[in-house]
Request: fold
Amino acid sequence: MATQNTKTLARLMMAPSVLLLLVWMIVPLAMTLWFSFQNYNLLDPSSDGFTGFFNYEYFYTDPAFFQSVWNTLVLVGGVLLITVIGGIAIALLLDQPIFGQGIVRILVISPFFVMPPVAALIWKNMIMHPGYGVLADISKFFGLQPVDWFASYPLFSIVVIVAWQWLPFATLILLTALQSLDGEQKEAAEMDGANFINRFIYLTLPHMSRAITVVILIQTIFLLGVYAEILVTTNGGPGYASTNLAYLIYRVALLNYDAGGAAAGGIIAVILANIVAIFLMRAVGKNLDR
Amino acid sequence: MGRITLKNVSKTFGEAKVIPSIDLEINDGEFVVFVGPSGCGKSTLLRLIAGLEDVSGGQILIDGKDYTNNAPAERGLAMVFQSYALYPHMTVRNNIAFPLKMAKMDKAAIDKKVTDAARVLNLTDYLERRPSQLSGGQRQRVAIGRAIVREPSAFLFDEPLSNLDAALRGTMRLEITDLHHQLKTTMVYVTHDQIEAMTMADKIVVLNRGNIEQVGSPLELYRSPRNLFVAGFIGSPKMNLIEGAYAQSKGAKTAGIRPEHLLLSKDSGLWTGTVTVAEHLGADTFLHANVDGIGLITARCDGEFGVTYGDRIYLTPDEGKLHRFDGRGLAIGNAGLAA
Amino acid sequence: MGRITLKNVSKTFGEAKVIPSIDLEINDGEFVVFVGPSGCGKSTLLRLIAGLEDVSGGQILIDGKDYTNNAPAERGLAMVFQSYALYPHMTVRNNIAFPLKMAKMDKAAIDKKVTDAARVLNLTDYLERRPSQLSGGQRQRVAIGRAIVREPSAFLFDEPLSNLDAALRGTMRLEITDLHHQLKTTMVYVTHDQIEAMTMADKIVVLNRGNIEQVGSPLELYRSPRNLFVAGFIGSPKMNLIEGAYAQSKGAKTAGIRPEHLLLSKDSGLWTGTVTVAEHLGADTFLHANVDGIGLITARCDGEFGVTYGDRIYLTPDEGKLHRFDGRGLAIGNAGLAA
Amino acid sequence: ETLTIATVNNGDMVRMQAMAPEFTKANPDIQINWVTLEENVLRERVTTDIATKGGQYDILTIGNYEVPIWAKQGWLLELNKLGDKYDANDLLPAIKGGLTVNDKLYAAPFYGESAMIMYRKDLFDKAGLKMPENPTWEFIGDAARKITDRKGDVNGICLRGKAGWGENMAFITALANSYGGRWFDEKWNPQFDQPEWKEALQFYVDLMKDAGPSGASSNGFNENLTLFQQGKCGMWMDATVAASFVSDPKDSKVADKVGYAIFPTKGEMKNHGNWLWSWNLAVPASSKKSDAAQKFISWATSKEYTQLVASKEGWTAVPPGTRTSLYNNEEYKKAAAFAGPTLAAMQAADITKPTVKPVPYTGGQFVAIPEFQAIGTNVGQLFSAVIAGQSTVDDALAQAQRATQREMKRAGYPK
Amino acid sequence: MARSVTTRHKVTATIFAWIVALLIFFPILYTIITSLKSETEAIAGFNLLPSFTLESYITVQTQRDYLTPFMNSVIISVGSTILALIIAVPSAWAMAFSPTKRTKDILMWMLSTKMMPAVAVLVPIYLIFRDLGILDSRIGLTVVLMLINLPIVVWMLYTYFREIPGEILEASRMDGAGLWQEIVYVLTPMAVPGIASTLLLNIILAWNESFWTIRLTTTNAAPLTAFIASFSSPQGLFWAKLSAASTMAIAPILILGWFSQKQLVRGLTFGAVK
Ligand SMILES: Nc1ncnc2c1ncn2[C@@H]1O[C@H](COP(=O)(O)OP(=O)(O)OP(=O)(O)O)[C@@H](O)[C@H]1O
Ligand SMILES: Nc1ncnc2c1ncn2[C@@H]1O[C@H](COP(=O)(O)OP(=O)(O)OP(=O)(O)O)[C@@H](O)[C@H]1O
Ligand SMILES: [Mg+2]
Ligand SMILES: [Mg+2]
Reply:
């Protein structure tokens, strides 16, 4: 299949995207690196000069730093868990013949159409608000004390909101993958006496493994950078209970206007993200070249 | 254990009526072969029996019980797909082991069965490969392996040997026959290979455009084809069908004589003709000759028959083995019966 | 126009050396058939010629020019894939028309060609269908159609007729032969069908584990197989290979006699044996007999030979057609040449 | 010429946009492009642009927090072409003072606000309470607990709890000010370890627990406004602009039952928290259209503009809290019941001297140093955790102290 | 598949699917309903039957120009996605059908370009944009979004392409198709559902991107995210207005999704390969 001939061509065809991304990566990265060693506060032009690793030190000694790393992992992990499992379940459900399939599909994928800050606003104000959110209304209907989601379960609430936004993405990719499963293989498995569950485990799941991997990897990258939802709902609080790395950087970058500190935070975030990515690649990457 | 009854079964795909209406009884333990031209509905029929397609009408009974609406898994049949349908992400071993795993057989027993099957199928060296790393014939053998490790109530084979070489095909033919003798399981077998059909079948079903033309034992079909279609279809090279004066002289619209029932000579005979093509197979020679007053005739003779294009030859039909057909194509009496 | 030369070509997949080293010359206009056991490397060889795989070593010349590193499209070859590889999103018509479209032929000409091909292939009624709506044989015919509408410098056919019924296969065989005569284009053809190999080939290449065992005209191979492998592979049912006293008496390690070169009798003969299996094909009967002092022997006789399991029969080898092989499996002299 | 004006999405600004055609009609050579954004986003956006000299805007809407900081950086143009009719002396002195650096005016106030108490007269009556002229925190605490009726879905008091320097910290800082607390001593040492803070925070936390609404830790201005309008709060202390909303019968169920009172004090200490905020229009130094820009600013913050709004949308709709003349206007006083209390609140505020002890900074409910946004938000997070019941007053204060020290050291204080 | 399913199965699946779908859709549904309420109604507690007033829409419409940001959103999201597709298709083709030992690393690296938190590079990027003079320009934004989404596009296409049996592409090469023809006539049509889904998902991602679209624009190029940002949390009651604005921002993309959902999930069908 892959002959020398196509390989040469392949290099050529990859060139544009690789070059573009190289520039897109290197230029800001170099500038960020440079800033991260500078004393550079937007609001204070008088502060400048080389500071060595001070920005880094300052960033990781932030009282919120370790909790924010942990929160980041919980957020990513929680959302991945919900979206992947939920996505598979819903994809399987939508793959069945049902009445009004088209409408159901559009309903299921529509949360993806909502801009993240808007989604956070909707959930915060209309669904989860302990005073006049729908959930509160439901609790009250059952005579229960409404839950103050953002105060009692801040990180969980954010996981729910973010998972709601990303569930459609997972569902859609998995559904498309599911539908490319060869019909005759399914038939063969049926003939071989595999019931629905076995067909799922031995046939569907392996078939979807690449798609699942892609969902996990792409979402991880996005989820590592979630901050708008936090900003709108909890502002990282109470305490640092819902501060993640991205939000911490936001605090440094856009509240403190400490471009140097933010740059250092960015570099730290990139390093951590790479660790996560390498770990993930180890865990699921082999599914890619199957 | 495996009596399959089709009652008035029909199948349409959209507009196309692929199977108008079929009644067929397959007895328990019988080896039934479906033959018929490409596209006549053999695979469709197998798939209907397997439950992979819904019937458009009629009933499918297994051991007298109505299974028309049951799922494939409930029917307990094993099938070799014409297009193999291997599991691409599993190794050959796992492909073959899959049905056993599904049957919750214990590991040691599975291993033994798989190893045995692999040996029979000449696949031992390939057990750890993925299907994509196999040759066409190897893939086909994996598909066979997946079916024969099981003990289903019936086997359904859809052209299982089409991609194998003659030697292997011979071996596999014997293996499948053996399996049949051992297990005495009903087998439904689709093939285009005349030798397979003739040697393996207890009963051959000749299909044409979704209709059954004739059902019978191999020699029955060879000797007394019920109509022109069966006459032309069973036997290779195919029967010469002759119309005109000669046929009329025999009291028929069409007279049929098989190539092997023509006596060839370079000196004398009933008919004279000119050789158009001589195909030398080593063991036989197929001669295509233009016979004066009759037309193109194929004859077969043993070994070498030293003629080439343009040579004059003489042919004498073995009139005891003549087949006669009336205007509607149905056989009259049956000359061939005597043979 | 289509002389293909393989120089020292080898191919490895990962660890597996599929083709150790092959030298082969295919002359312009020649019809070359590759035969060999399943998995021996036939398809791989075709794919190497086509340029779909890189050679691991050696050179591929077309008309003397080195094409080893050229893209498939530049080689101007047409190919029928063993697995068809139809375009699932195109109708049959578009599948067949695709190569012509690529060659920028004008629309009317394309239409004509496609219609002609469809007629020859019995696909006229299916032109607007998608591949998924076709039977196995119909798909295979589409794959053939896609190749034969073109005028390439050579055709590569990988078991193109394996899923067709005998009648259609016969027709297609003639069509391809005709095409060859008309165009005089080089054809490289892989098949497991002995009849196809024997009747169509100018030259047969027998492959075994990626090595060429023998190259020659069909009858050459039939009559004088160079070694045991070729002897066993060419001819069906396969040649009986006898070791022991009888072979030694003929001055060989192994003696070979084809089933069709055994004279059968119920009364007398050189050897006596017991029938184990009798396969009645109508035109012939294949007898498997356990011959005293020699072992299992297959014999073929014309028409019906009325024996069944357990009957005693007598067999006499036609010693003029005996093949003799030495300890390394190579043929000694050649008895068969005379036949 | 096209002016690009960055503004927040508050009602008064939106109204300004609606009125703008009057200005362009009078000045046909000027077109206006509006960039309306949410407050936080706008602040980021504008700060980035101005700090990097992006030059995207001609007029900025900025708070009195930024004005002195930016003016010192030389990022703002002095407003010296507002015209003769502008009457800068009419501006409320407290407001104007916050916008003046070295005697130069760098921004014109569009509207201003302080904080006050809004309370439900009916609930007070029912509980037999009467709002004193100068309420104290002690009274407020008692009253709130008395009014609370959880079953009837009435909370005694609604206060900001959502973390943020402009959210809960605005209120808590004002509260602490009135308790005699301060952010920094003269040497810029954070003061969270002082008893005033502990007392104030403890009071706030207890009060919210006993008489606050559920979910208080994520309530900001809008959430509380909604609660109050729904009749779920007995009292609410927040920006004076809220008055125009709660008294608007279209949106508010309790419009006719609202009373107003001045921001409380602690015991005898005469300090009303010193909350003072204004939204102002300023011209960035990078603007090449400063003449036109000033022309517009002059128009939008003028008395004529007030008249224009009043004539079109009624007196309650005019931007409050910038000009003395407005509060002398009888029509306005008649139309807006909250006019008096608002003025009183604003006059009570002195952001140059927010608390009884001396401070090195200006700012009432904030500290006018660049670092405050981050520090304030960080501290706000810690305090909201207490409201949410996930931390204690002592812990939060200790953490706040440490975090603030850290940031101040980083920023190089004392300077 | 060929078999029809029993009605019972279908009904059960239908009920389940609708429950799940409605649960997932509920927040949006409620937003739409709220947008049809008056402000006081909007906060008056759970109520699925609004008074169907268009008041909020009218307010939103008169307050802010909708058409310009809408057009900007369309141009930017569609433009960036198509640009990304044009660059990504060959690249994904190469990685899917001519993989090397490096392929996985390259894929991962591409994704890693997205790891830098946007806020951390705001200043560098803003400076670059300022110096290039493309602040507040559609082109600049389109390019940025293209670069942001490029890795995702490559990844998604790569997954879909990998599902296509290589033999079919080989067949086209044998049929004399050049690279370009192979991609246009064979690969693309077969991967249509995958490409469509990539296209839509990335249009949505670009449509919803609300960091750079707000930070790098002022007026001329400001898309709907900026439009929405002007309605989120002002002072005063805003639920109905925010809902209306949100509905207006979501509606176009929702309608697009509606029309393309068949394409989206049609699935790749490879019936004719053995
Ligand atoms: N991708 C691959 N990786 C490893 N081994 C392979 C691969 N493709 C083919 N092979 C092996 O190479 C050998 C030759 O394969 P090839 O397909 O050429 O056989 P073939 O002669 O065409 O057989 P058949 O008649 O069964 O089609 C087989 O043993 C096969 O298992
Ligand atoms: N999904 C489908 N839609 C429409 N027609 C179909 C479909 N599947 C099969 N057919 C048609 O039904 C007829 C019977 O097909 P079937 O596969 O049963 O043939 P077959 O006898 O197995 O042929 P072959 O020997 O070529 O495999 C064919 O003419 C085919 O074109
Ligand atoms: Mg078939
Ligand atoms: Mg092959």
